[in-house]
Design the sequence.
């Protein structure tokens, strides 16, 4: 096993934050990480969604959003920071984008490329796959 | 012992939650020469435990973890080894 391949399907804030934190620390520690954002997980990176902070949240997520006295990096910020110092790559699901008629310009700049399932599985073949 | 530690670099991550303090530390450590003493200041309880875990795994050395109870933060002193 030479790293993690994370399939991110969820648009729930707690799951997004967990993926961002774990991927960031792993990559910053030189553990290769690939994130494949698909379906709801891809839409979490939509520019308008990020601007409005319109996320599905639970108890912890509400506490995160309400916290005013702490500097909590959002998942996309943790991922972007980690990409600058470690082997972290982020891919957008081509099927999801096609269904919505979107391009990478509609999403956060954290994405490296657009991939189909076969393409991502090629990247994931030597990694531990985690589905979120 | 703590009184004698004089850091070469101080990172003030107070107010930042996980993984902010550790990410700040990793960014500095990667650019630091071996033997550099770094002080990480954090108000995040989990980081006060998690940072020494990362330091050990990365092969560096934690010199001390000092809790400043009155001011509500920790100083994690580490020394880079590579």
Sequence:
């Amino acid at each position: 096993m030479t790293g993690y391949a994370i399939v991110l399907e969820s648009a729930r804030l707690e799951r997004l934050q967990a993926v961002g934190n774990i991927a960031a620390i792993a990559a910053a520690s030189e553990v290769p990480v690939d994130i494949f954002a698909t379906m709801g997980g891809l839409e979490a990176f939509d520019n308008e969604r990020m601007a409005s902070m319109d996320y599905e949240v639970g108890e912890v997520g509400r506490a995160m959003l309400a916290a005013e006295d702490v500097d909590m990096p959002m998942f996309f910020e943790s991922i972007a920071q980690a990409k600058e110092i470690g082997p972290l790559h982020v891919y957008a699901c081509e099927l999801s984008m096609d269904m919505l008629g979107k391009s990478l310009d509609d999403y956060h700049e954290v994405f490296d490329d657009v991939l189909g399932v076969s393409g991502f599985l090629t990247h994931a073949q030597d990694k531990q796959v985690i589905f979120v | 012992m703590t009184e004698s530690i004089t850091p070469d670099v101080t990172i003030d991550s107070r107010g930042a939650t996980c993984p902010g303090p550790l990410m700040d530390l990793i960014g500095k450590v990667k650019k630091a020469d071996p033997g550099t003493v770094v002080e990480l200041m954090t108000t995040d309880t989990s980081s006060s435990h998690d940072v020494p875990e990362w330091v050990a795994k990365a092969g560096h050395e934690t010199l001390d973890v000092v809790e400043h109870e009155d001011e509500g933060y920790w100083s994690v002193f580490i020394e880079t080894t590579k």
About this structure: The first strand of chain B starts at residue 9 and ends at 12. Chain B has two helices and four strands.
